[in-house]
Amino acid sequence: MWRLRPVSRLVALVVVTLVGAGACALDPSTGGSGGGGAAPAGATAQGSGASAAPGSDQPDRPATTPPRATPSRTATPTPAKPKPTPSRTTPKPTTSTSPAGCPQGEQQRAVETYLAQLGGFGAVTVDGKQSPADCAAIKKFQKRYDIRPAQGRAGPTTYDVAKRLATTDTSRCRAGSGTTFCIDLTRQTTWVMRDGKVLVKPTVTRTGMAGYRTPAGTFTINFRNIKEWSDPYEVWLPYWQHFTQGMGFHETTTYLHNMSIGSHGCVNLLHADAVRYWELGKVGSRVVLIGRRPGT
């Protein structure tokens, strides 16, 4: 009996070894990774959907066993204490220099200066800071000269128009007696004089582009038509007043402040100005053009 004990121990050891080896064997249910028999990473999560990224694009999957609510151990739940908000995140009341809906532009002070010089658009304070009064004046100016959008912002177009108008020297136009239409080709502005005095203040215009330069000189309106058809360009020309070589005044058919283009020699006007010029003009009226449009 004493000799059988080592044999029994040897048999027991072999059995334990064989059972342990079975625990590391390939399990078909795991997908055959062979990694020590453990399930692939995320396998359990894939079954429950827990590994999916949260978000509205991820569909919800019902759990196999709905989670049970854990009852509270206390009769009355203790409310969470609110976290103190850092003082630096608390907004401080400030006085804005830009009224709501009327942003300040990069040319604020210059536009204020020119509008104060031109007059007629309301009170402005020349300090480079937007105010409700400044906003109203700039908006009025933009609407008058069809600057889009008319939101009161002193941007580059508003600055350019204001500067051209404010620096126009009306005395350079030798009007003489009667009604004279004057055009400053350099500044792209126009105005009307009668008997040597300004009848209509300078307004904006756009003349011939490169290759179609509007010539300087003195001419006379010799034909008018409330609505003229242009044969070469196939477009209507409202409030047409011809003065030389197929060129004349008419209402613009495009956005006047797009200065990258121009007319084919005509003097383009905003609608209100075209109507006013039509009312004042007649066959025989004088037209004086001075300077030269840059780039033509």
Automatic annotation (TrEMBL):
Looking up InterPro entries in the UniProt record yields: LD-transpeptidase (IPR050979), LD_TPept_cat_dom (IPR005490), Peptidoglycan-bd-like (IPR002477), PGBD-like_sf (IPR036365), PGBDSf (IPR036366), Transpep_catalytic_dom (IPR038063)
Q: In which pathway does it act?
A: Cell wall biogenesis; peptidoglycan biosynthesis
Signal sequence, start to end: 1-25
Q: Where are the active-site residues found? A: 250, 266
Q: Which GO terms describe its cellular component?
A: extracellular region
Q: Where is the L,D-TPase catalytic domain?
A: 179-290
The name of this protein is: Putative peptidoglycan binding domain-containing protein
Q: Where is this region: Disordered?
A: 30-107
Among the GO biological process terms of this entry, one is: cell wall organization
Q: What GO molecular function terms would the record report?
A: peptidoglycan L,D-transpeptidase activity; transferase activity
Q: Which UniProt keywords apply?
A: Cell shape, Cell wall biogenesis/degradation, Peptidoglycan synthesis, Signal, Transferase
Low complexity compositional bias, start-end:
40-63, 86-99
Q: Which domain of life is it from?
A: Bacteria
